[in-house]
Amino acid sequence: MKDAVRRLNNEYQFNLTEKEIDLVARQAEEAALLFKPLFEVNVDGITPLTKIDKRRRKIPAVRKGKK
Fold first, then answer.
1. Where residue 57 falls among pLDDT bands split at 50, 70, 90?
2. Which residues touch 21 (CB under 8 Å, ≥6 apart)?
């Protein structure tokens, strides 16, 4: 992970210190562990559910014109 942070540091010229690189790498590893269960969920072939609230009416746009 440190190598990836170093590459980004060089590419985007963040000018991070070695201590900051260690901190960012550690935070990225913790985030990866946190989101790992989400990445393991297989959602292939599942259509997202969309709900339309029919109680909400569309408000017509205000027209500017002759009065």
1. low
2. 2, 5, 6, 9
